[in-house]
Design goal:
elongated
Length: 135
Amino acid sequence: MQVIETGIVKQINNFEIIVERTNVGACSSCSIGSFCNMKNKSEIVVKSEEKYDIGDMVELIISPATRILSALLVFIIPVVFMVLFYCISFFWFRFNEGVSVLISFFGCAVSYCILKLCDSKYGKKFEVRIRKCGA
């Protein structure tokens, strides 16, 4: 199921269209918003070769694949890192359970840093399509 938001075309620069989102509140509780590059932003830049005019009402469409990948990254990767760091510290380095749990939290922090790097490098490449309302 695609996520569809509405917006108004505010500016056009060649094939880049700046759209002001009209229902920003829907993203406020979303945990994967940083990976679709839309959370806490009222404007988004979308590339399109179709012709739009300033003031046009448009729909922003986020593909299901983008949603699934974002959810996988945000919800699964930290858990995998926590378990991995716990297992390495407990079974390989033979630390006691309490220390291994603390190290597993460090693994979660490492996964957060990796996710931030991925977001800065690939976050803008996630597909967000645009179409005129009613099209």
